[in-house]
Design brief:
Elements: E1 21-24, H1 27-36, E2 54-57, H2 60-85, E3 97-111, E4 116-119, E5 126-133, H3 138-145, E6 156-159, E7 170-173, E8 179-184, E9 188-191, E10 199-212
Antiparallel strand pairs: 1-8, 2-3, 3-10, 4-9, 5-8, 5-10, 6-7, 6-9
């Protein structure tokens, strides 16, 4: 257990709540993932919660290639959360080896009027989402939607805790091609429908970060 000890006469800190990590993927990675969707991949839409057209499982080669591109950032995310949650007292030991096991990875193909209901991911400790393509013309929809008091079309919504005068329990993210987010698997999230014809394509992975005995 970490015990808080003030270090200055005035400071702000966040001992509660999960951390979300953001990374901008390289264009080469985005292009490779978009091309790889044409592989003969297994459709396991029936076993997931998404109310979307198709969710295609990554094959082993695709899993390995994707995690190889992202492992440094995911390790950095894990290190940051360890340091933050211990209030600066714990960090990853550079003399030890760590590994990231991908327990599941898949494309999400979402079209107009479809959505992903509120859910978490199980059988893992870390989850993520990366954006690969958006419908042509969706910026026009967003421009109109942003005139509303609560714009949300096609956005991902993260939820945690309870709203109060000094806290917020809902966090919206507008998808952009190449954007990648990593977060704890227990963090509730959902995706709102949009109404522009075309595909909103993303991918997700479930992962376990662990120490490897030398």
């Amino acid at each position: 257990m970490t015990i808080f000890t003030p270090t200055t006469n005035k400071q702000f800190f966040s001992p509660f709540g999960p951390t979300i990590g953001y990374y901008k993927m390289k264009n080469e990675m985005v292009n490779e993932l978009n091309v790889s969707i044409d592989k003969n991949l297994k459709d396991h839409s029936d076993s997931l919660v998404g109310k979307v057209s198709q969710e295609l499982s990554f094959d082993e080669e695709l899993k390995n290639t994707t995690i190889e591109n992202l492992k440094d950032f995911i390790t950095e995310y894990h290190s940051y959360t360890k340091l933050r949650n211990s209030m600066g007292k714990e960090k990853l030991d550079p003399s030890k080896k760590y590994q990231i096991d991908v327990t599941g990875a898949w494309y999400v193909r979402q079209f107009e009027h479809e959505y992903n209901p509120l859910h978490t991911h199980t059988g893992c400790t870390i989850s993520c989402v990366g954006y690969l393509s958006l419908p042509e013309g969706i910026e026009d929809e967003w421009e109109d939607d942003y005139k509303d008091h609560y714009p949300a079309n096609g956005h991902i919504n993260f939820s945690y805790g309870t709203d109060g005068s000094h806290s917020c329990s809902s966090f919206l993210i507008k998808p952009k091609v190449g954007d990648f987010y990593v977060f704890p698997s227990y963090l509730f999230h959902s995706v709102y429908p949009f109404y522009t014809k075309g595909e909103r394509r993303s991918f997700s992975m479930n992962m376990i970060f662990s120490h490897v005995d030398n």
